[in-house]
Specification:
single chain; mainly alpha
Length: 160
């Protein structure tokens, strides 16, 4: 498992580089806890199932493609900033391809953090503050109703 303080520092630095409005203590902790619940910071490829989700935050490539096509392409300054923060060429955002994002989300920790944050950014609700609120927020907006995770699972891992 990755050393907790290093991961928190990387998440904080990445969010700050994205821009002031993307960083808050609540955002940093939600993202950190999402990675802990999704992979325990051990797995870069989904364990079991379809093996499609990638990275510590278990983002599926189609989600990254959707963020690029349905969100970033309408926000060019943000797209430029995200490309810069992730150290990625524009082509991955302008013409996103699932196979490219599969590799990026497996190998680029900064991109994993950015796309986890953007996934949550598009949620039309305030960020949660408590572990109970995070668990419910994660289940509804990240893991979704169809996901195998539960609120109890989230809280058990965070409180372990």
């Amino acid at each position: 498992m990755i050393y907790q303080l290093q991961m928190l520092a990387l998440i904080k630095k990445t969010l700050e580089e994205m821009g002031e409005k993307y960083y808050s203590h609540e955002a940093m902790m939600l993202i950190y806890n999402t990675g802990l619940v999704e992979s325990r910071y051990k797995y870069l490829i989904q364990k079991g199932g379809s093996n499609i989700a990638r990275g510590f935050f278990q983002c599926e490539p189609w989600v990254a493609v959707s963020v690029c096509k349905d969100y970033l392409q309408y926000r060019e300054p943000l797209m430029k900033k995200v490309a810069e923060v992730c150290y990625l060429d524009w082509k991955y955002f302008i013409d996103p391809i699932s196979d490219d994002w599969k590799k990026i989300l497996t190998t680029n920790i900064t991109a994993q953090i950015v796309f986890c944050r953007l996934h949550y950014w598009r949620v039309p609700k305030k960020l949660p503050k408590t572990i109970d609120e995070q668990a419910a927020y994660w289940k509804k907006w990240y893991n979704t109703e169809k996901g195998a995770g539960t609120i109890k699972h989230f809280k058990d891992i965070i409180n372990d």
